[in-house]
Protein backbone atom coordinates (compact mmCIF):
# COMPACT_ATOMS: atom_id res chain seq x y z
CA UNK A 1 0.00 0.00 0.00
CA UNK A 2 2.84 2.39 0.82
CA UNK A 3 4.54 1.81 -2.55
CA UNK A 4 1.63 2.77 -4.85
CA UNK A 5 -0.52 5.85 -5.39
CA UNK A 6 -3.84 6.29 -3.60
CA UNK A 7 -5.66 5.87 -6.93
CA UNK A 8 -3.83 2.62 -7.67
CA UNK A 9 -4.52 1.27 -4.20
CA UNK A 10 -8.24 2.01 -4.50
CA UNK A 11 -8.31 0.31 -7.91
CA UNK A 12 -6.55 -2.71 -6.44
CA UNK A 13 -9.05 -2.92 -3.57
CA UNK A 14 -12.01 -2.68 -5.94
CA UNK A 15 -10.55 -5.27 -8.33
CA UNK A 16 -9.78 -7.71 -5.52
CA UNK A 17 -13.40 -7.35 -4.40
CA UNK A 18 -14.56 -8.02 -7.97
CA UNK A 19 -12.64 -11.30 -8.01
CA UNK A 20 -14.17 -12.36 -4.71
CA UNK A 21 -17.70 -11.47 -5.83
CA UNK A 22 -17.29 -13.30 -9.15
CA UNK A 23 -16.04 -16.36 -7.28
CA UNK A 24 -18.98 -16.21 -4.84
CA UNK A 25 -21.36 -16.05 -7.81
CA UNK A 26 -19.81 -19.22 -9.20
CA UNK A 27 -18.51 -17.54 -12.34
CA UNK A 28 -15.02 -19.01 -11.98
CA UNK A 29 -13.59 -21.73 -9.75
CA UNK A 30 -10.22 -22.17 -11.47
CA UNK A 31 -6.94 -20.27 -11.58
CA UNK A 32 -6.62 -19.37 -15.25
CA UNK A 33 -9.10 -16.62 -16.14
CA UNK A 34 -8.63 -12.86 -15.69
CA UNK A 35 -10.21 -9.57 -14.70
CA UNK A 36 -8.32 -6.33 -15.31
CA UNK A 37 -8.73 -2.70 -14.25
CA UNK A 38 -7.03 0.33 -15.77
CA UNK A 39 -5.29 2.69 -13.33
CA UNK A 40 -7.03 6.08 -13.39
CA UNK A 41 -3.82 8.03 -12.68
CA UNK A 42 -1.74 6.02 -15.19
CA UNK A 43 -4.05 5.13 -18.12
CA UNK A 44 -1.42 3.01 -19.90
CA UNK A 45 -1.13 0.80 -16.82
CA UNK A 46 -3.55 -1.74 -15.38
CA UNK A 47 -3.73 -4.43 -12.71
CA UNK A 48 -4.44 -8.08 -13.40
CA UNK A 49 -4.53 -11.33 -11.43
CA UNK A 50 -1.55 -13.65 -11.13
CA UNK A 51 -2.05 -17.17 -12.45
CA UNK A 52 -1.91 -19.81 -9.75
CA UNK A 53 -4.22 -18.25 -7.15
CA UNK A 54 -7.94 -18.85 -6.86
CA UNK A 55 -10.21 -15.86 -7.32
CA UNK A 56 -11.22 -16.23 -3.67
CA UNK A 57 -7.55 -15.66 -2.77
CA UNK A 58 -7.12 -12.32 -4.56
CA UNK A 59 -6.03 -9.35 -2.48
CA UNK A 60 -5.15 -5.78 -3.34
CA UNK A 61 -1.48 -6.54 -2.76
CA UNK A 62 -1.07 -9.71 -4.81
CA UNK A 63 -2.47 -8.23 -8.03
CA UNK A 64 0.12 -7.52 -10.72
CA UNK A 65 0.66 -4.23 -12.52
CA UNK A 66 1.37 -4.25 -16.27
CA UNK A 67 1.24 -1.82 -19.17
CA UNK A 68 -0.85 -1.98 -22.32
CA UNK A 69 2.11 -3.35 -24.28
CA UNK A 70 2.02 -6.42 -22.03
CA UNK A 71 5.12 -5.55 -19.98
CA UNK A 72 5.01 -6.68 -16.33
CA UNK A 73 5.75 -3.82 -13.91
CA UNK A 74 5.32 -5.61 -10.57
CA UNK A 75 7.79 -7.86 -8.82
CA UNK A 76 6.01 -11.12 -8.08
CA UNK A 77 6.79 -14.81 -7.91
CA UNK A 78 3.65 -15.39 -9.98
CA UNK A 79 2.72 -13.91 -13.34
CA UNK A 80 -0.48 -13.54 -15.33
CA UNK A 81 -1.33 -16.28 -17.79
CA UNK A 82 0.28 -15.44 -21.16
CA UNK A 83 -2.99 -15.71 -23.09
CA UNK A 84 -4.83 -13.45 -20.65
CA UNK A 85 -2.08 -10.85 -20.59
CA UNK A 86 -1.94 -10.91 -24.39
CA UNK A 87 -5.51 -10.04 -25.28
CA UNK A 88 -6.54 -8.12 -22.15
CA UNK A 89 -3.62 -5.71 -22.63
CA UNK A 90 -4.51 -5.40 -26.32
CA UNK A 91 -8.11 -4.45 -25.52
CA UNK A 92 -7.09 -1.84 -22.97
CA UNK A 93 -4.42 -0.50 -25.31
CA UNK A 94 -6.77 -0.18 -28.28
CA UNK A 95 -9.89 1.05 -26.46
CA UNK A 96 -9.05 3.99 -24.18
CA UNK A 97 -12.70 4.36 -23.13
CA UNK A 98 -12.66 0.83 -21.68
CA UNK A 99 -11.27 0.51 -18.16
CA UNK A 100 -12.07 -3.09 -17.24
CA UNK A 101 -12.16 -6.52 -18.86
CA UNK A 102 -13.26 -9.97 -17.70
CA UNK A 103 -12.85 -13.36 -19.36
CA UNK A 104 -14.37 -16.52 -17.87
CA UNK A 105 -15.47 -20.06 -18.79
CA UNK A 106 -18.86 -20.54 -17.07
CA UNK A 107 -20.43 -23.83 -18.14
CA UNK A 108 -23.54 -22.31 -19.74
CA UNK A 109 -21.35 -19.81 -21.60
CA UNK A 110 -19.15 -22.58 -22.96
CA UNK A 111 -22.25 -24.53 -24.04
CA UNK A 112 -23.65 -21.58 -26.00
CA UNK A 113 -20.19 -20.79 -27.42
CA UNK A 114 -20.24 -24.24 -29.03
CA UNK A 115 -23.49 -23.60 -30.93
CA UNK A 116 -23.23 -22.43 -34.52
CA UNK A 117 -26.31 -20.23 -34.08
CA UNK A 118 -24.78 -18.57 -31.03
CA UNK A 119 -26.83 -16.69 -28.45
CA UNK A 120 -30.62 -16.43 -28.74
CA UNK A 121 -32.42 -13.57 -27.01
CA UNK A 122 -35.37 -15.25 -25.29
CA UNK A 123 -36.66 -12.88 -22.62
CA UNK A 124 -36.86 -9.25 -21.58
CA UNK A 125 -33.59 -9.34 -19.63
CA UNK A 126 -31.78 -10.64 -22.68
CA UNK A 127 -32.97 -7.66 -24.75
CA UNK A 128 -30.40 -5.58 -22.86
CA UNK A 129 -27.77 -7.45 -24.88
CA UNK A 130 -29.23 -6.37 -28.23
CA UNK A 131 -26.31 -5.27 -30.47
CA UNK A 132 -23.91 -5.85 -27.56
CA UNK A 133 -22.65 -9.37 -28.36
CA UNK A 134 -19.64 -9.95 -30.62
CA UNK A 135 -18.15 -13.31 -31.68
CA UNK A 136 -14.60 -14.57 -32.10
CA UNK A 137 -13.73 -17.97 -33.57
CA UNK A 138 -11.50 -20.22 -31.50
CA UNK A 139 -7.82 -20.00 -32.45
CA UNK A 140 -6.41 -22.00 -29.55
CA UNK A 141 -5.14 -20.50 -26.31
CA UNK A 142 -5.12 -16.85 -27.53
CA UNK A 143 -1.37 -16.62 -26.90
CA UNK A 144 -0.43 -15.54 -30.41
CA UNK A 145 0.23 -11.81 -30.63
CA UNK A 146 -1.48 -11.58 -34.02
CA UNK A 147 -4.76 -12.91 -32.58
CA UNK A 148 -5.23 -10.01 -30.16
CA UNK A 149 -5.95 -7.39 -32.89
CA UNK A 150 -8.61 -9.69 -34.33
CA UNK A 151 -10.30 -9.96 -30.94
CA UNK A 152 -10.22 -6.16 -30.60
CA UNK A 153 -11.58 -5.62 -34.13
CA UNK A 154 -14.40 -8.13 -33.71
CA UNK A 155 -15.33 -6.69 -30.31
CA UNK A 156 -15.62 -3.19 -31.81
CA UNK A 157 -17.85 -1.01 -29.61
CA UNK A 158 -19.77 -3.92 -28.10
CA UNK A 159 -19.60 -4.73 -24.40
CA UNK A 160 -19.59 -8.53 -24.61
CA UNK A 161 -18.10 -11.30 -26.73
CA UNK A 162 -18.74 -15.00 -27.08
CA UNK A 163 -15.43 -16.64 -27.87
CA UNK A 164 -16.55 -19.70 -29.80
CA UNK A 165 -15.81 -23.10 -28.22
CA UNK A 166 -14.05 -21.17 -25.47
CA UNK A 167 -15.92 -18.82 -23.13
CA UNK A 168 -17.19 -15.31 -22.47
CA UNK A 169 -15.67 -11.83 -22.44
CA UNK A 170 -17.12 -8.57 -21.09
CA UNK A 171 -15.68 -5.06 -21.00
CA UNK A 172 -16.79 -1.83 -19.40
CA UNK A 173 -15.94 1.78 -18.61
CA UNK A 174 -16.10 0.77 -14.93
CA UNK A 175 -15.98 -2.47 -12.96
CA UNK A 176 -19.71 -2.07 -12.35
CA UNK A 177 -20.55 -1.75 -16.04
CA UNK A 178 -18.38 -4.74 -16.91
CA UNK A 179 -20.02 -6.81 -14.15
CA UNK A 180 -23.49 -5.77 -15.34
CA UNK A 181 -22.91 -6.93 -18.90
CA UNK A 182 -21.21 -10.16 -17.89
CA UNK A 183 -24.10 -10.95 -15.55
CA UNK A 184 -26.63 -10.36 -18.33
CA UNK A 185 -24.62 -12.51 -20.75
CA UNK A 186 -24.37 -15.40 -18.29
CA UNK A 187 -28.10 -15.14 -17.51
CA UNK A 188 -28.95 -15.26 -21.23
CA UNK A 189 -26.71 -18.29 -21.79
CA UNK A 190 -28.18 -20.13 -18.80
CA UNK A 191 -31.73 -19.42 -19.97
CA UNK A 192 -31.02 -20.59 -23.52
CA UNK A 193 -29.39 -23.77 -22.23
CA UNK A 194 -32.45 -24.54 -20.07
CA UNK A 195 -34.96 -23.75 -22.80
CA UNK A 196 -33.11 -25.91 -25.34
CA UNK A 197 -32.96 -28.73 -22.77
CA UNK A 198 -36.76 -28.95 -22.73
CA UNK A 199 -36.69 -30.16 -26.32
CA UNK A 200 -39.74 -28.02 -27.07
CA UNK A 201 -40.16 -25.64 -29.97
CA UNK A 202 -38.43 -22.36 -29.14
CA UNK A 203 -40.47 -19.18 -29.45
What can you tell me about this protein's structure?
The chain is α+β, with helices and mostly antiparallel strands. Helices cover 34% and strands 18% of the residues. The protein contains 5 helices and 7 strands, in the order αβββαβαβαββα. It has helices at residues 6-24, 82-94, 107-113, 148-155, 175-197, and strands spanning 34-39, 42-48, 64-67, 100-104, 133-136, 160-163, 167-172. It has a 7-stranded mixed sheet, with helices on both faces. Strand 5 (133-136), helix 4 and strand 6 (160-163) form a beta-alpha-beta unit. Helix 2 (82-94) crosses helix 4 (148-155) and helix 3 crosses helix 5 (175-197). The longest helix has 23 residues, at 175-197. It is globular, with a radius of gyration of 17 Å. It starts with 5 loop residues before the first helix and ends in a 6-residue tail after the last helix.
Given the helix and strand composition, which structural class is it?
Answer: alpha+beta
Strand order in the sheet with the most strands = 3-2-1-4-7-6-5
Largest sheet composition? 7 strands, mixed
Return Rg in Å: 17 Å
Total count of strands: 7
Instruction: Compute the average pLDDT.
Output: 94
- Proportion of helical residues: 25-40%
Distance linking N and C termini: 54 Å
Shape annotation? globular
**SSE pattern:** HEEEHEHEHEEH
Number of helices: 5
The unreliable regions are: none
Strand content: 15-25%
Amino acid sequence: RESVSAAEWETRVQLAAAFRIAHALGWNDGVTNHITARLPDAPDHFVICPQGLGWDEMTASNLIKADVSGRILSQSELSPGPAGLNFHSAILGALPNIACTMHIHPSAGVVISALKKGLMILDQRGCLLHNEVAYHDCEGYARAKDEAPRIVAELGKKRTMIMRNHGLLAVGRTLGEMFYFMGKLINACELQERVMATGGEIN
